[in-house]
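lol forgot to send this yesterday, sorry. struct tokens for the thing we talked abt
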């Protein structure tokens, strides 16, 4: 057995898990087989009186081998069952053996790793800082497939188990003990002895559910309180993420049906549901997205060059974006100069940082001392001379070329032109902005997302004039600020703004066609978007969106085409409806948010409304078709990074796996066929690029 070492002490067999060739312990197929063999040997040996499961790594087991599960798309259910039945059977044999089995949990135990612990008679955790316990399968479109739903519910009760399973909650060791997931906590050095002592003190234990007359704590699913809990959980499988993620319904099914019967029948119900999910599109999309996320920093390859190790950074502009950048940089340990046009505006920006960190302290996400130290690192000023000595500058002023150019020249006069200069812009081409710098090769785009302290993504835009050294140091800065970078080529709208705009624009176009605004917005939310396209337009504000289009018209000249989205915005502005911060747009906001009744006069709904599925397809296809064009044009080189950008940048529905993953979900050929139909019915914005058509003809995939 390559992945298990064994030792017997006073009749107790210790199985120590050490996944060879892996950076951490994960339940790979090879480790599963070794575990099954080792447990079978221990249970079959009359000289072995008990069993302790331990780990040679800092973690116990970090979870299942997602690469193995991620290759199951469309696999026959029987094959998926075969993948997990042996491990599931091993756990059942352990708990029915009447030999004491103890999990000595030295560190993080997640997913299948914690299910292994649940199959033991007793669980002892080490007081290890940073270690977490949980069953996070729901976050990947799955459910625990080795007894997690059945054992957890029988241990702590249905109402306590339900949120842990549906949300995939991770608990600290102390929280896990308090919630009843583990039985005891001991210092790390005492863990193994505590496990051995328990085995000796409990020579013939039984799981509670194997004892005649067992009742689930708090009652079964028919208990009135539990029944109400199931009814309350029902909407999450009909609206929001659950409407498109079958894992939510499957988990509730396992809890409701599985706890009405004996444990073995419940385990079979769970196994059938796991097999259905694991081979399905949503789980496969979300697993692929997981690997795209974890591989994003590697994919954003850093060119060779001197590493940037900044001590001081200048932020130009103290508005919402600039204040967010200042907070993020200060919390990362940098000295920050927060500059604005006058001292009052700069001070207001610093006050915004203080308020934001105060909220983080109140929520327990930031220590008071850390917040105070971070705020002390921020200097608010209107004097460009204070930027002297900065190792990097991030410009976040008003989205206007002239204003940005003026700020760029003044800042570089204070710092010297050799400093790394990043402009935070969502659409303005970087090459044009770089002309304001004496060193355009040291100029780069870094498009952050609001609110900066909470948003993980940064879109790094390289212009033709940007040097390798500048790109490398921008990546250094992104990682120092704890952001996930994607690298894109300089082009109008870059990647994120270009593709996300397709979502908002499609809503504006549908409204102009006479599609009911409530239908547009409701379908968008049911598809998994946080808000509908009309609500999003209100957040961006109609005047800002129209100003961007006017800038595009000036830049493109005769090539510019006026679309229905432009006409919709023009009519809204003429009606005095500019957006949320101006008092109202597509929605009224006082006293509560609701669609503006005047929309019916400006955009009369047609008598026959389209099928909601057609609206759903239009919203998803509009973005994926635009993403495919950006990929075909080389704006973004890797489909996985396009997915990361969409999931982290604007919370594209997670069940799709991202804008490019959704193309691949049903096959590129199927997407191209649907896109061509939509293009014929609604316009060329849906037409797939030739590169995607060629991929479909060749039977290829994006990944």
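and heres what i got for the seq, position by position
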């Amino acid at each position: 057995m390559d992945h298990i070492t064994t030792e017997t002490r006073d009749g107790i067999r210790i199985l120590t898990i050490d996944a060879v060739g892996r950076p951490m312990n994960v339940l790979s197929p090879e480790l599963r087989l070794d575990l099954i063999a080792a447990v079978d040997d221990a249970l079959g040996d009359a000289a072995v009186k008990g069993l302790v499961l331990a780990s040679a790594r800092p973690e116990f087991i970090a979870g299942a081998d997602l690469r193995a599960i991620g290759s199951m798309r469309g696999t026959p259910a029987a094959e998926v069952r075969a993948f997990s039945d042996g491990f599931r059977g091993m756990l059942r044999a352990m708990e029915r053996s009447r030999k004491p089995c103890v999990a000595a949990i030295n560190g993080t135990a997640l997913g299948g790793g914690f299910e292994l612990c649940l199959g033991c008679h007793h669980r002892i955790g080490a007081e290890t800082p940073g270690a977490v316990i949980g069953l996070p399968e729901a976050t990947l479109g799955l459910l625990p497939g080795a007894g997690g739903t059945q054992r957890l519910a029988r241990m702590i009760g249905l109402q306590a188990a339900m949120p842990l399973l549906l949300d995939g909650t991770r608990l600290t060791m102390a929280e896990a003990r308090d919630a009843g997931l583990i039985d005891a906590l001991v210092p790390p050095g005492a863990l193994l002895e505590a496990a051995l002592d328990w085995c000796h003190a409990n020579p013939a234990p039984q799981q509670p559910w194997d004892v005649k007359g067992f009742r689930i704590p708090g009652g079964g699913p028919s208990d009135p309180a539990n029944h109400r809990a199931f009814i309350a959980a029902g909407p999450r499988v009909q609206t929001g993420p659950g409407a498109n993620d079958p894992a939510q319904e499957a988990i509730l099914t396992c809890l409701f049906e599985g706890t009405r019967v004996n444990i073995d029948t419940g385990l079979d119900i769970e196994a059938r549901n796991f097999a259905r999910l694991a081979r399905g599109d949503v789980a496969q999309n979300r697993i692929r997205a997981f690997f795209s996320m974890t591989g994003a920093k590697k994919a954003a390859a850093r060119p060779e060059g001197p590493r940037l190790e900044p001590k001081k950074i200048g932020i130009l502009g103290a508005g919402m974006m600039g204040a967010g950048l200042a907070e993020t940089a200060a919390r990362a340990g940098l000295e920050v100069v927060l500059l604005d046009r006058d001292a009052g505006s700069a001070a207001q920006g610093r006050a915004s940082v203080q308020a934001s960190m105060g909220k983080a302290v109140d929520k327990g996400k930031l220590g008071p001392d850390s917040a105070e130290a971070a705020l002390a690192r921020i200097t608010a000023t209107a004097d460009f001379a204070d930027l002297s000595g900065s190792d990097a500058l991030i410009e976040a002023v008003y989205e206007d070329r002239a204003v940005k150019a003026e700020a760029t020249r003044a800042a570089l006069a204070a710092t010297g032109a050799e400093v790394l200069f990043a402009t935070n812009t969502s659409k303005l081409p970087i090459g044009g902005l770089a002309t304001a710098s004496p060193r355009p090769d040291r100029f780069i785009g870094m498009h952050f997302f609001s609110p900066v302290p909470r948003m993980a993504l940064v879109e790094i835009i390289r212009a033709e004039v940007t040097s390798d050294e500048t790109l490398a140091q921008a990546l250094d800065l992104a990682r120092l600020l704890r952001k996930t970078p994607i690298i894109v080529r300089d082009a109008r709208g870059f990647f994120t703004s270009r593709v996300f705009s397709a979502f908002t624009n499609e809503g504006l176009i549908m409204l102009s066609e006479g599609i009911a605004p409530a239908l547009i917005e409701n379908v968008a939310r049911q598809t998994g978007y946080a808000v509908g396209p009309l609500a999003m337009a209100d957040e961006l504000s109609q005047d800002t969106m129209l100003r961007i289009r006017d800038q595009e018209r000036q830049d493109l000249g005769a090539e510019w085409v006026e679309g229905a989205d432009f006409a919709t915005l023009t009519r809204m502005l003429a009606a005095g409806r500019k957006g949320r911060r101006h008092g109202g747009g597509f929605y009224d906001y006082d006293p509560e948010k609701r669609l503006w009744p005047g929309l019916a006069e400006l955009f009369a709904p047609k008598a026959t409304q389209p099928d909601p599925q057609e609206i759903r397809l239009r919203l998803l296809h509009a973005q994926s078709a635009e993403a495919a064009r950006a990929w075909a044009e080389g704006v973004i080189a890797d489909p996985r990074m396009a997915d990361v950008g969409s999931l982290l940048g604007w919370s594209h529905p997670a069940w799709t796996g991202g804008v490019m993953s959704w193309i691949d979900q049903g096959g590129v050929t199927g997407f191209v066929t649907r896109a061509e139909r939509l293009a014929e019915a609604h316009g060329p914005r849906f037409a797939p690029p030739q590169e995607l058509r060629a991929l479909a003809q060749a039977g290829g995939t994006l990944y």
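The longest helix spans residues 612-632. anyway ping me if u want another try
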